[in-house]
């Protein structure tokens, strides 16, 4: 007879619904997603370290987080491990990471002057789309991610990664900040386009829900 592992033995003492939740969290894709949230305090500490060391640490941590963002979704689909918790955590982890990095970059003045406008556009779009998705979820309407939105995310991550490397890149003579600022504006432009598309599609669903006759008891 196969001896149960310690984890499975302990799970027997948990309620059934909690056992299911624990199992979903333990999946590799969900662990990768959670690692992005755990990485945020490390990024905060990196920005308060002596430079350019802190810039190198922030760049490496952010790059690794971006890699997990790619692999968690891919693994979940390939291994058929897509779970409600994963769908819930993935966008939250992304938005927490992006929001934290933008605030840190502005506080460090690596994004300053008019360039802050691009950062604000990206932040506001994230809040707007999150609110819209939450409202549409109540109507049982999902908003799939478009190809242009995926390109926006890619450009945004590359730009933010380059900006976290501002001091580190300058140390070896690479214009990381300049590249990052250009990418930030491109991401902001794509953000406005995709944000408009999401709002237009969302408003169409809202209008349709308002015109539907009430359900008969």
Give your account of this protein's structure.
The protein has a single domain (15-209), classed as CDP-alcohol phosphotransferase transmembrane (TM) domain (Four Helix Bundle (Hemerythrin (Met), subunit A), Up-down Bundle), CATH 1.20.120.1760. It is built from 9 helices and no strands. It has helices at residues 6-11, 16-25, 28-47, 53-78, 84-107, 115-138, 147-164, 166-171, 176-211. Helix 3 packs antiparallel against helix 4 and helix 4 (53-78) packs antiparallel against helix 7.
Structural class call reads mainly alpha
Total number of strands: 0
CATH topology: Four Helix Bundle (Hemerythrin (Met), subunit A)
Report the β-strand fraction as a percent range: under 5%
Mean pLDDT comes to 82
| CATH-level-2 architecture | Up-down Bundle
Number of helices: 9
The helix/strand order is: HHHHHHHHH
Distance separating the two termini: 54 Å
Radius of gyration: 21 Å
Helix content: over 70%
Q: How would you characterize the largest beta sheet? A: none
CATH class: Mainly Alpha
Low-confidence stretches: 1-14
Q: Tell the overall outline.
A: globular
Instruction: List the domain count as a whole number.
Output: 1
- CATH superfamily, please? CDP-alcohol phosphotransferase transmembrane (TM) domain
